[in-house]
Design brief:
By secondary structure, the chain is an alpha+beta fold. The protein is built from 16 helices and 22 strands. α1 (12-24) runs parallel beside α16 (454-480). The longest helix has 27 residues, at 454-480. The structure holds flavin-adenine dinucleotide (FAD).
Amino acid sequence: MTRRVAIVGAGISGLACALRLHAIDPSLKIVVFEREGRAGGKILTERIDGFTVEAGPDAFLASKRGGVTLSRELGLQERMVSPAPEHRRSFVLSRGKLVALPQGLSGLVPSELKPMLRSRLLTPAGKIRLAMDLVIPPRTAIEDESLATFISRRLGPEAYERMIEPLLSGIYAGDGERLSLAATFPQLRASELTHGGIIKGAVAQNRERASRDPAQSPRTGFLSFVTGMSEIGDRAFDVAKRNGVRFVLGAECSRVRAEADGQPGYRLAVSRGGEDEIESFDGVVIAVPAWAAVPLLRDVVPEAAAVLTRFEHVSNALIVVAFPESQLTRPLDGYGYVVPRIEQRDVMAMTWVSSKWTGRAPEGQVLIRAFVGRAGQSAALEGNDESLVQLTLRELKEVLRLDVVPTMTRVYRWDRGMPQYTMGHLDRIDRVETELSRTPNMELAGNYLHGVGIPDCIVSGEAAAANLVADFREQARQTAAPASPVAN
Ligand SMILES: Cc1cc2nc3c(=O)[nH]c(=O)nc-3n(C[C@H](O)[C@H](O)[C@H](O)COP(=O)(O)OP(=O)(O)OC[C@H]3O[C@@H](n4cnc5c(N)ncnc54)[C@H](O)[C@@H]3O)c2cc1C
């Protein structure tokens, strides 16, 4: 029996799901409905006047499962690139000045003490407090705590505010006082419990990594592709299409309902070019942001929809500015800088794109990207695009003393772009997944479940595919099994 599967959303979660579904069961008829006129979702690289501009993510973490594996499966192993090694350093804006981030910060936390003690980011008292992580005993209470509470408890409030908070803002655009440790960095709590502290845990991890045969070691750091992040989305789309997956672009799914009269399967209402259509499927994967999943789940899994309604999101904008190198009055020697919340600035981070990545700007041109909008600091997003460009030019002037006349600007807005893994997140996800597990042939994938990064999204799409096929196989097994004898 040929089963029909609908995937709603052609971001990286939906694409990874389509590829995995076909790989597990090539007989499936897979249709992907995507609201936009292109696949890729938040992954979007544009080529503008010789610049390579990332409108969303600019890299993915190599050490996490999912990203490198899928890239290899798609034949992109030779296309992966690392940031330019000659500029490998980043800065933190501290009391109005750029201070280099100390070496040895690994996965958000210090893995070497010496560079921390030498850093100008912390006061002498802040450094002593940070080193106390080596002696403070692990907390015995098992309840979750906020990231801010945990890091302040281990490394001190100053290290949290000045060093760690701006880094985690760069990942979640969130408020560390409200983000759940268990949902965001469970490995830090595990380090505390296993090694007695987070510095000791990071040192042990480094040692373990160094003892491995380098040829066997997985890639580390951040990776992109020669012509930008869209390579992975475009290739996934092409390969899936070649495998027979049907993509319906410009098609918004507005409703999912169970088939009438208790029949298995679902009916999807889809609007495309002003026309509304209903299509029937045996299984459905919803691979859209949490807020967009709510109306789709309301009829079939109302309890899950109710939980997802309470998920918080942060909107943000990326402002891209290019200008001639001749206007540089100082070198941009690094990947850029992050801004702690306590600095009270609108720009949360700036990437010096043409220093970080090779070949992203034409000869003699500089490309930078400013990130605006984080939990509790998003007033600037209310302004129009021109005001965001002006804000970025002001930032260049005030922080870098660069008075530039742009040759190209772009503003990309991501409405509710970042899901917030606030306290209680794991319980909420558990409730959503429990409800879904009681709903046959219906799966969720996306960045609000088990991680916001691209590798996490890939893993979530692949897991949804595996669960759906497992459901189908179980149903086929039950249908094939001989009926049990009727008791008399
Ligand atoms: C500005 C920004 C920078 C980021 N930087 C990084 C980074 O550097 N590294 C990293 O790893 N991660 C980064 N992330 C996070 C990462 O990009 C996302 O978590 C990930 O791309 C989400 O993929 P997704 O497929 O789950 O969702 P999306 O990419 O949002 O895709 C969902 C798709 O569903 C479609 N859709 C929605 N509703 C419907 C509907 N009703 N019917 C049909 N289609 C629908 C949408 O149009 C969209 O194409 C960043 C995110 C943002 C916003």
